[in-house]
Amino acid sequence: MAIIFKLSSLTNEQLEDLPQVWDKLAHFCEYATLAGCFAMWWSRAQWSKRQWLRVLVVTALVVAYGCTDEFHQSFVEGRDCSPLDLVADLLGGLTGGSVYALICLLLNRFDPLREKDG
Question: 35-44: string of b/e by CB count within 10 Å (b at 16+)?
């Protein structure tokens, strides 16, 4: 979250070498990674139950942070609050959470955990 905040603090002049399409890809990758970090709040055993509910919770957290990030950008010189950036954040969060759920599903299938949910 700190890295995203720092990148959001950069002005357009500092980011002028970045084409617009790369901006959306950067948002997607940043928020997919953030979703993966949020997903680690639950153990692999917990991910075996209600996976898609957990993906939705992780995505909601990512979008909430994306909203605060866009609000923060509105105060940075030359930057604005962009709905398309928020869409990239949403898609990144959904993808990151889904990939984490898929990895847990595969790991749990081939290496079942014997631990109890806590």
Answer: bbebbeebeb
